[in-house]
Amino acid sequence: MPNNDRLLVQILLLVLFGATLWVLAPFWSALFWGAVLAFASWPLMRLLTRVTGNRESLAAGLLTLGWMLLVAGPLVWLGLNLADHVRDAVTFIKDVQVDGLPAAPAWLGTLPIVGERLVGIWNTIDQQGAAMLVAIKPYLGQVGNWLLARSAQIGGGILELTLSIVFVFFFYRDGPRLAAFIHGLLERLIGERADYYQELVAGTVQRVVNGVIGTAAAQALLALIGFLIAGIPGALVLGIATFLLSLIPMGPPLVWIPATAWLAWKGEYGMAVFLGIWGTFIISGVDNVLKPYLISRGGNLPLVIVLLGVFGGLIAFGFIGLFIGPTLLAVAYSLLIDWSASQSRREEKP
């Protein structure tokens, strides 16, 4: 009978654990980002805690408020500018419907080989603009639905980011207690190796954060140098935008490609070619070299494990996989090494 009671308690605990995971499922991503953000900025939290006289809640509140201002400010600015550009695009389309396209720019006809052909295409589009709009009208609804879906994704991402900043307050405030709780669970699961694996996961996440931030800073600096050489106005603002967009895959081209197109529109073809080459091979190319190096630096993992973790994690989980992939492979690799070593020790004992 006691065995049956024990089995019933275990089943109830499993059901309770599964129900808890089900309730928390919508918030896993936000919780993960909050944990990563808190872990990456934990030295700042310790410094602020000492400054505020060991008042953890006050330090956590001030640091969380700083993150809100740092993250919410650029998002609001980006949203306002995006709304202005959408309004300008709608006005441009209405003007084209009424007046047709403006005259082809003078520089378009001066392009070697294809210049005259491009001017002819431009004039053909202008003459057949009304008929073209009628032809593409059935597809505008699909385009609108696609844009609506993308807008919903962006809105969901902003909501997730907001939740992450809310959660980061609790990670700041209760971080030491949460770390002690996790350490206790690991000790029950794997015994004396708990400290090693906790440090392994923490070190891997820290190196990934350093790799992401360090690569973004390097890309922003290289972009700023390229913009200054090419004479792009607002080079500093564009460099900051490159830093922010470097935190997402394929983000920097969203800055240097429009800048290259602007140079070509102005007729500065030499600088446009320079910035296109600089952006392709220097700004965007450094991501494939510097990020894996920074992530593997200071650890005992083979570089191939880091590369597989970074790129495989991105493919499997999206941007969040940049942190999950290397961590999973690091833990799996260490478990295999430990298992192999323990097997060797057992064989040597007799």
Descriptive key words:
single chain; 350 residues; mainly alpha; 85% helix; elongated; membrane
How would you describe the overall organization of this protein?
InterPro entries: AI-2E-like. It comes from Pseudomonas batumici. This is Putative membrane protein. With 350 residues, the protein is mainly alpha-helical. It has one domain (26-299). It is built from 14 helices and no strands. The chain has helices at 2-24, 28-40, 42-51, 56-99, 106-109, 115-127, 129-190, 194-230, 235-245, 253-265, 269-283, 287-296, 303-317, 321-348. The model has no long low-confidence stretch (mean pLDDT 76).
Summed up:
The protein has 350 residues and is mostly helical.
Blueprint of the fold:
Elements: H1 2-24, H2 28-40, H3 42-51, H4 56-99, H5 106-109, H6 115-127, H7 129-190, H8 194-230, H9 235-245, H10 253-265, H11 269-283, H12 287-296, H13 303-317, H14 321-348
- The backbone outline, from C-alpha atoms, is elongated
Class by alpha and beta content: mainly alpha
Domains, number: 1
Radius of gyration: 27 Å
- Let me know the largest β-sheet: none
Mean pLDDT, rounded to whole units? Answer: 76
Count the DSSP helices. 14
Query: Low-confidence segments, ≥5 residues, pLDDT <50?
Result: none
End-to-end gap: 42 Å
β-strand number: 0
- What proportion of the residues is helical, as a percent range? over 70%
Order of helices and strands: HHHHHHHHHHHHHH
Approximate strand percentage = under 5%
